[in-house]
Structures are given as C-alpha cells and as structure tokens.
C-alpha cells in the first residue's frame, strides 16, 4: 500500500542537517506473524537521534521511529492476540525463540541488535521501498514508524487501555519503559534507601516518576538545565543538583555516603564515573543512556572493589515486554504516572523541528502526530 514516511536520506551532520523528508513510499502487506498498524503518533527518542546523527549505526536511505501508537488495520493469518480496530502501541522487538526469550527476558533477546538496528527482518527482507523500487531500511526496531502506517511483529504489540489517550502511548515502548523499568524491574529500591538519577531527559524523568511509586526515601536528580530540575521536583524528586564538578561530593554529603542506587540516563553515558563515585558501600549503578557502540567508560578500580559497588547495564528497563508496558499505561490512567507532563506534540510535517527541539533540550518528549 502507499503510505507517507519520513525518509532519512543520509546521516544528519552539522554540515548536512535536515536530511529527513516526507515521501510517499510503498509498504508491503503483513506476513503471517505480523500486523499492519495505522500509526496515530510516534515519539522521538534519543536512539532515533543517535542514529540520525551517526552516533549509533543505521543504514540509509531508511525510516526511523520506534515509539508508535496506533490502530490495527490488518493481521497476518497466524495472529491471535490482536484484531482489527484494536488500540495498540509497538514495543521492543524480540525473536521469541532464543535462550533469553525462552527465559522470559525478551528485552535481552539474543537477536536484539539485528532486530533493532539492521533495518531489516532477521531473514534480510525489508518491507518499505520507494516508488522507483529502491529498497529502504524500513524495519527499525521492526517498526520504522515515522510513517502513517507500519508493519510490526504481533509479539511486540501491547494493548493501550481506554483510560489513556492513544496518542500518548507510543513512548512507553522505549524511553519511558527504559527509565521506569530500571527502577521497578531491576533496582527495586527498599524503604529508606536513596536513588540518584543522572540526566533529566525522558528516560531519567520516567525513572523519577517510577521511583515516586516506591518507598525510596531520597530521589536525587542531576542535570544541567534548570527547567528540567524544576520539572523533576514537580514529578517527585526530593533533591536536585545542577551538574558540576561538585556534584559527587554534594550527593555524598546529602546521603551521608550511603547512596544506594544510581541511574546514568544521559544521552552519551557521560556521567557513569560520577554516578559510580557517588554511590555508597554496596551501591548499584545502572547504565541506561544510549551511546556509541565504541564509547568507553573509565572508572577508579577502588570505586568498585573498595566499596563492593555494582555496575550493571539495563536495556529497555528489563522486564517482560507487553505485560509491563500495559501495567505502566494503566498507572497513567489512574493519574499515578503523569507522562503527559513530559510531552509536546508536533505535526508529522514538523519532524525536523521536533528533532531539533529534542537535541536542544527544549522539549523532553516530542511526539509526532500523524495526519488523519
Ligand atoms: Zn530472542
Ligand atoms: Zn528509543
């Protein structure tokens, strides 16, 4: 079928900006285990921007977008969980067959890298092409949903409860569940503990909202943008610090050297060493912010061994994908997870402005609205 998609012609750099243009393209029908979704809205995530700017790898020409919400328009003949007309959002892709998937750890699917960044299905086939026949890398996270329609795997879909607006649901698929899942699935802070979130973007602020649902005592947020720190306080941060060379000492003083948990949620993983240094004895630092595959982290050996600290990577918030996403959306419906405070909507045609505003830190969670 003919659809409109935001095509990335080549990697966007400072000298060659705005290489995304809306274009009419062809979308293949869903296969037996796939679903055609009419996209209502799609978030702009740090990983989209990472690929767009060449920090993370993605082939061009291609279509980005991996935080879609929409309505099911057609299903493959083996699809049983969703039906035409269902309100859905598209979460992380996973193969469902590997060692990790069979253990219920779909976010750590062994095929994750290929499913997310190759731009194609595992068998190498695509699904989007230009009208002149040129193949597009149109399976970003198996959804490439900066588009009016897309095809995704049945297993990556979650139902959107009636209690929330459909156009709000897409970001639960990646950035929001990454921040919230790190707190609720992985760190699980106990009463009386303290948690510091480095980076108050959409991932970090989702972690703050999730932390507020727990009995953690101190929720500390570090960022360099005053408006983000103010929003963090509104969402539940008990203390905020402007990022500086004094931050580690300030946190130690506040927590009496007993910081239990740190989440490094900056785009670029710039503050991992600070986050680990700020921890107290036996503290755990979760690295969740995206970065270049070749990026390195340097730590003081004594900071790990001397204090029994732990450093873990948490991908996509861990947890079982659709069930966890549905439970987070239900919390928003109850007013306990105010995602709407992070969001600003943009028309699809303004995709480049949404990216610029996100790059500049003006908008925390841009969501693109597709034309009706
Ligand atoms: Zn798998
Ligand atoms: Zn993402």
TrEMBL record:
Its cofactor is Zn(2+). The keyword Zinc applies. It comes from the Bacteria. Keywords: Metal-binding, Oxidoreductase, Zinc. InterPro entries: ADH-like_C, ADH-like_N, ADH_Zn_CS, ER, GroES-like_sf, NAD(P)-bd_dom_sf. Signal peptide: none annotated. SMART domains: PKS_ER. Gene3D superfamilies: Medium-chain alcohol dehydrogenases, catalytic domain, NAD(P)-binding Rossmann-like Domain. Residues 15-368 form the Enoyl reductase (ER) domain. Belongs to the zinc-containing alcohol dehydrogenase family. This is NAD(P)-dependent alcohol dehydrogenase. The lineage of its organism: Bacteria, Pseudomonadati, Pseudomonadota, Gammaproteobacteria, Lysobacterales.
């Amino acid at each position: 079928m003919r659809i409109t998609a935001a095509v990335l012609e080549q990697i966007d750099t400072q000298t060659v900006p705005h290489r995304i243009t809306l274009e009419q393209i062809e979308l293949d029908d869903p296969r037996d285990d796939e679903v055609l979704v009419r996209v209502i809205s799609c978030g702009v995530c740090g990983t989209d921007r990472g690929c767009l700017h060449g920090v993370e790898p993605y082939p061009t020409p291609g279509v980005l977008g991996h935080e879609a919400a929409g309505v099911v328009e057609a299903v493959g003949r083996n699809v049983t969980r969703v039906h035409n007309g269902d309100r859905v959002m598209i979460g992380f892709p996973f193969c469902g067959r590997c060692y990790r998937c069979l253990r219920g750890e779909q976010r750590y699917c062994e095929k994750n890298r290929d499913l997310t960044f190759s731009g194609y299905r595992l068998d190498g086939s695509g699904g989007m092409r230009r009208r002149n026949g040129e193949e597009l890398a149109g399976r970003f996270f198996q959804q490439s949903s900066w588009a009016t329609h897309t095809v995704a795997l049945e297993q990556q879909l979650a139902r959107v409860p009636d209690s929330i607006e459909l156009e709000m649901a897409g970001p639960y698929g990646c950035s929001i569940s990454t921040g919230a899942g790190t707190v609720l699935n992985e760190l699980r802070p106990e009463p009386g503990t303290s948690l510091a979130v480095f980076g108050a973007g959409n991932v970090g602020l989702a972690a703050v909202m999730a932390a507020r649902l727990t009995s953690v005592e101190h929720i500390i947020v570090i960022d360099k943008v005053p408006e983000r720190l103010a929003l963090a306080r509104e969402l539940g941060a008990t203390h905020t610090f402007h990022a500086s060379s004094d931050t580690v000492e300030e946190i130690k003083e506040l927590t009496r050297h007993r910081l239990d948990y740190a989440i490094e949620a900056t785009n670029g993983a710039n503050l991992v060493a600070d986050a680990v240094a700020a921890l107290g004895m036996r503290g755990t630092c979760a690295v969740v912010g995206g970065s270049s595959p070749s990026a390195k982290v340097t730590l003081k050996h004594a900071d790990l061994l001397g204090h029994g600290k732990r450093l873990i990577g948490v991908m996509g918030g861990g947890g079982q994908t659709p069930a966890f996403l549905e439970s987070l959306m239900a919390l928003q419906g109850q007013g306990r997870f105010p995602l709407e405070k992070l969001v600003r909507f943009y028309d699809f045609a303004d995709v480049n402005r949404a990216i610029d505003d996100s790059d500049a830190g003006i908008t925390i969670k841009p969501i693109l609205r597709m034309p009706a």
